[in-house]
Prior knowledge:
The structure holds two protein chains of two kinds. Chain A is mainly alpha-helical. Chain A has a domain at 1-89: Four Helix Bundle (Hemerythrin (Met), subunit A) (Up-down Bundle), CATH 1.20.120. Chain A contains seven helices and no strands. In chain A, helix 2 (29-49) packs antiparallel against helix 3. In chain B, 77% of the residues lie in helices and 1% in strands. Chain B has one domain (8-490). By secondary structure, chain B is an all-alpha fold. Chain B contains 21 helices and two strands. The radius of gyration of chain B is 22 Å and the shape is globular.
Amino acid sequence: MTGPADLIFYFVAALTVASAILVATLPNIIYSAVALLFSFAGVAGLYVFVSADFLAATQVLVYVGGILILILFAVFLSNRISTVKISNPVHFNWQAALLCLALFGVLSYTAVSTKFPVKPGLSYQPTTAEIGELLMTRYLLPFEVASVLLLAALIGAALLSRPEGEKERSADMEEPK
Amino acid sequence: MSPIPIDAAALLTGLRCILPEILVVATAIFVLFVDLMIPEENKRILCGISLIGVVISLFSVFLLGPARISGFSGAVVHDGLGAFFEIVILAACALTLLMATGYSEWEGTHKGEFYSLLLLSTSGMMFMAKGTDLMTVFLGLETLSIPIYVLVGFHRHRMSSIEGALKYFLLGAFASGFFLYGVALMYAATGTTKIPALAAMLLDARLAANPVFLAGVGLLLVGLAFKVSLVPFHMWTPDAYEGAPTVVTAFMSAAVKAAAFAALIRVLLLTFGGLQPVMWKVLWALSVLTMTVGNLSALLQDNVKRMLAYSSIAHAGYVLVGLVSGDFLGGQAALFYLLVYAFMNIGAFGVVILIAQKEDEGYDIRNLAGIGFKYPALGAFLTLFLVSLGGIPPTAGFVGKFYLFSAAVKNGYIWLAVLGVLNSAASIYYYLRLVVYMYMVPAEGEMPVPRPSRLAFSAALFASGAAVLLLGIFPGSALDLAARSVLSLLM
């Protein structure tokens, strides 16, 4: 890669990491969600750099477009938004900090000390058709099991969010005073 | 890329390979539809349908036999190990179903979704036990976990149920992240997620020393250790087990553990050649920690459900003793123990359900006072299961522990066996404490009246009791089956 491409790569990587740190530390949950937007978009950018076009598009569609909006809606629609202070308090917990630092040390050691096999001459080819074909052939079973998983999640979500019994249903119908 | 030809014959072989899973998922969907059509008071039919599905699936496992069938380009395999764990998981599911209807009606929480979620979770466990690709194992893990999260929080009117579900869900999602990260790192190091291919590549000593690969294995181990609740990844266990509806607790303690151990055994035994020199120390420490912390915490509990939760942590430690050596003997002992454990633990929870009047308050140990002589059948059953959990002959628990610890001794892990036996001796104190309460402590005030047992419920208790006794006195055929299952994996 030449100079400018490298520069853009480092910019995108820095954006991803910096906004991820902001997500964890910002006091207001809405700010955190917006920081998450940049982090997700940064990850999509990283996918582009390794020529994973389908993955990048999915990242934008599912994470930026779907999950993030869902998080914001969940915050806005949650009950008694005016009374509950929606915040993301930062507690410093030294045990947790120690554990995270140890994990960070191990992972960065492995990342630095390993000689990753580098594929020379990365070609930017569309990958969507290939992924589709693999999902229907070599990875057919995981693909189908994922649908069973989604069915279970759907039933579970419906069960947990449905009002319980007749009595509560009528109580839910009443207008809040 | 040229198009991959679709091989109809291979697809059919694959479908045959996952026939038991297909049957369970089909039953779950069928139950979901029937639930919409039948009135509230006939929900009991759903339990019958689910039970029939599980029995047919169990039958199909036997029909497929021990022959090795690999399907879906190596994503899943039907072999001895898979079949063995399918039997354990389906048996646990059947026992849970037998107890579930009565329990739900007593608690007034009878809903059709319970059965479909239980069956979907079961199918996930079966995929996990049979998966030879880490992707299949991961999807199986998630498919088993998500319905369980919901089932733990099934009693939405009880604070403890919601608390348990939320804790389990948050920590479980975190553990799944670890598992997936581990798989990703292993893929980065080797370029494959297939377990046999990983095992073959591990014969090259350079890979076994590759830090990325080792970090991947470590993270994978964390993910699985969480599911079987090894110390120090056990924090969620007491709360989730206590809050969950008790039938779900019984199911979790037996079946979820069996499924996660199935994946662990497959990975550990196959990668034995390359990883064992590093792994045994980690597993040794985890095993000793798990046994000791589990048993010491159980000593302090006055709530029977919580005590059984800590005891189930300790039992995961015993099973791990068999895996430290990572060889044939230990594998066989671990398999046999998981089978036995499913019966004795579900049985113990079953009796406790009958004695406890209602959730939360009903599980205090003082509730057991005087039960033994007034209700001799209940007392005898609970004593049998507790004696077996403690590992006293002539029950199956004794045979299981005997094989686990002797496998450790034969492989030279003398200290591990000594610590295991010491732990086992300590555990007898808190198991027998319940027996003492039942037979020797007079009831204070009015004695609680146990729930009148249903026919299905009694059948579940009789089946578990018979299994515990039979496997204890004639363990030969089950041990042979376990031996063949491990051999089929190592071949």
